[in-house]
Amino acid sequence: MTTIEGSVALVTGGSRGIGRALVAALYERGAKKVYATARDPRTVTHPEAVPLALEVGDPASVAAAAAQAQDVTLLINNAGAGVNANFLDSPVADVRREFETNFYGPLLVTRALVPVIERNGGGHILNVHSVLSWIGLAGSYSASKAALWSQTNSLRLDLKPRGIEVTGLHVGYVDTDLTAGIDEPKSTPQSVAAQALDGIEAGAYEVLADDISRQVKAGLSADLAALYPQLAA
């Protein structure tokens, strides 16, 4: 199991929302250093964080960030996009853009940092999914998060022999810029971050951070019409 205290973490998308809350929570639990990445590192506001420029879908940017973060033991793949492209009507380029950020981005960052974490004696990776990994209500976003969930499950098997544990975090609505226009109950970023770090320290395979994530996960074995009542109409 991974101990946060004394760890060196890298959080993608670390300048706002859940990412910013994770950076703060890591320091509160005694992390030695936290790299907070953003497209514009000037947007990183935590006074102790190490700002790092990163575009997760750009291999050159990923390689440059990894070269500067050679002491990492904990990777949190949090950066994501919310394009929500419709499969029938939206430009295919929009679907590809969602996958570049939400699926290929975490893959590129993970591939770059696994050798680093391994050289540093092993550690942990947390991938931020969504309840929409399990229910297709948001077009390309749901599909990209479902693909990331599958990637996480495969990586967990590949990395266990290399001394790296993998946790998947699933959340519904969180009170961030992304959900500003949604009038539904929301978790706070601080609550989600705390549960995520609890899961890392406990060696949990998955963290379900709210009731809706727990309900949808529990319903995956039911008839599809239970998850999609539109089918029964």
From TrEMBL:
Organism: Streptomyces cupreus
One Pfam family recorded for the sequence: adh_short
Domain of life: Bacteria
This protein's record includes keyword Oxidoreductase: yes
Family matches, as InterPro entries: NAD(P)-bd_dom_sf, SDR_fam
UniProt family annotation: Belongs to the short-chain dehydrogenases/reductases (SDR) family.
Name of this chain's protein: SDR family oxidoreductase
Keywords from the UniProt entry: Oxidoreductase
GO MF term set: oxidoreductase activity
